[in-house]
């Protein structure tokens, strides 16, 4: 019998997740294994590359065993993974460095230097402002650790490292698909290649970069050793795969101009599918990564810790709700949402700034969280609701910029994915504030499904990747705009937009005081 299953694996920050699917997209088994973050110095965040391979092996073996399928019936696999960090390998694919995480800010001075001297040039060429990503990280290794840098044959990302280990690749075979290019800091995003101009400017040799490939390129097959490590059949094809964000967007069926998606996770991401590359050089807010589908882009921006604000509130303020959840077995966020639903729209005049660790889009590391307008009449419910509303107000800023840059864009709905998509209150709130209907999906595991889709297309099972992705992204519930609530929220949304200009001087001075300057 022919092969009839597909495997998707996500190499994430907190851990690795694997999922095995049948050809109709049904999830047969899923497994998760935690990874360890290391903090060797202030501002440094690293991970052991061996941990990526180890957790991939654990989760793949678990889904194969739980599903009971014959490993030889698995047609192919693909990895996705965290996108903005890098690691170095030698000629034999041995790790020369630990993974320099996207959470690691040791390269900050090089980010600042790039912003000062090359900010607009990078936005126009790469599609995003200088950030804690590949370019500044490579410069850091070159300038701060030259002996280690000399040993690095290629800089790669975690998903590529694991795929290469699975296939027994050498550095000369290193690859990276085009959905990662915006994080490189040295690419010509429009042409889909490395920018010799930027590389020369920053003194980085192209020889240390991987070749750029299509997501569905077959990069190798599972070796005998990898088969023993994972429980897979030797010879199973491995596709190049995509970045984790791109995988989630594909798994959510984001394959046409005008579609939009809200990733309500640790970060809060709002993205719009567009068919032209229009860099945001004026506002320096939107990022323009390539979509998996050729010819499409995502105009997107995000709150670095949107979901973390809710976790912080839960851990700091919600002891009573946590106790109730422990007694009843209910989710603590469901309890908090029920209470917040009792508060009028607008939180009775309470506004929240959701940037507890600085603002990312546009970048301002000095901004911090704030509550504006609270009085004796506000209580815990009001404060929690104001956090939910603040994420949507911030999304409103992204929406306004997107409409200005892409005036012909028509957005009919926003698809909601991630843990926060389980909240009907939050979905309705976002629909009302943005004035666009929201849709939750039946499928929760959109990231590993996106990777499985890529694998299926790579081995020829799916002939129309976009068609299958769209067909199998089935809606669960739709949240129509309440026009009365939309009108009520409008002045709050407009006032929120003015907060940053009003508070910037305060934030700057507070940063100077706390740093002792």
Describe the structure.
This protein has a domain at 306-398 and 484-514: Nucleotidyltransferase, domain 5 (2-Layer Sandwich), CATH 3.30.420.40. Helix 9 runs antiparallel to helix 12, helix 11 packs across helix 12 (380-405) and helix 12 crosses helix 16 (483-514). The chain is an alpha/beta fold. It has helices at residues 49-67, 108-126, 134-144, 146-151, 158-167, 196-202, 224-230, 244-251, 306-317, 319-328, 332-340, 380-405, 424-434, 446-458, 465-471, 483-514; strands spanning 5-11, 15-22, 27-34, 46-47, 74-81, 87-89, 99-100, 154-156, 175-177, 187-188, 193-194, 211-213, 218-221, 237-243, 260-264, 268-274, 297-303, 351-353, 370-372, 414-417, 438-441, 475-479. The chain is built from 16 helices and 22 strands. The strands form seven sheets. It has a six-stranded mixed beta sheet. It has a six-stranded mixed beta sheet with strand order 17-16-15-20-21-22, with helices on one face. The model has no long low-confidence stretch (mean pLDDT 96). A hairpin with a 3-residue loop joins strand 15 and strand 16 (268-274).
Number of helices: 16
Tell me the total number of β-strands: 22
Strand order, largest beta sheet = 3-2-1-5-14-13
Fourth CATH level, the homologous superfamily of the domain at 306-398 and 484-514:
ATPase, nucleotide binding domain
Major sheet:
6 strands, mixed
N-to-C CA distance: 71 Å
The CATH first-level class of the domain at 306-398 and 484-514 comes to: Alpha Beta
What percent of residues are in strands?
15-25%
Unreliable stretches: none
The best one-word shape is: globular
Round the mean pLDDT to the nearest integer and report it: 96
Radius of gyration: 23 Å
The fold-level CATH name of the domain at 306-398 and 484-514 is Nucleotidyltransferase, domain 5
CATH architecture of the domain at 306-398 and 484-514: 2-Layer Sandwich
Structural class comes to alpha/beta
Portion of residues within helices: 40-55%
